[in-house]
Amino acid sequence: MYPSCRRRAVTFLCKRYQLIKNYIRCALVDNVCVAYMRFCLKMAGDINAMSEIRNSLAW
């Protein structure tokens, strides 16, 4: 009985690790997107670019 409990705990931890890995990957992608948008706004430096980005996000 003890080994099966341990196996169950290990698979649970592995699944949890996969979820955390996916979450970290998504968070990294989000951060890159936000940084890219900020960079674009800085480069454009005008209100038109901001409204264009807002419109594209509203899509």
Largest sheet: none
Order of helices and strands: HH
**Class by alpha and beta content:** mainly alpha
List low-confidence stretches. none
Output mean pLDDT.
Answer: 74
Whole-Å distance between the termini? Answer: 55 Å
SS field, number of helical segments: 2
Overall number of strands: 0
What fraction strand?
A: under 5%
Overall 3D geometry? Answer: rod-shaped
**Fraction of helical residues:** over 70%
- Using only CA atoms, what is the Rg? 21 Å
- Number of folding domains? 1
Give a brief outline of the structure.
The protein is mainly alpha-helical and 59 residues long. The protein has 2 helices and no strands.
Structure description:
The chain is mostly helical and 59 residues long. It has one domain (2-58). Helices cover 93% and strands 0% of the residues. It has helices at 2-44, 47-58. It is rod-shaped, with a radius of gyration of 21 Å. The N and C termini lie far apart (55 Å). The mean pLDDT is 74.
What's the arrangement of secondary structure elements?
Blueprint: H1 2-44, H2 47-58
Task: Give short descriptive properties of this protein.
59 residues; mainly alpha; rod-shaped; 93% helix
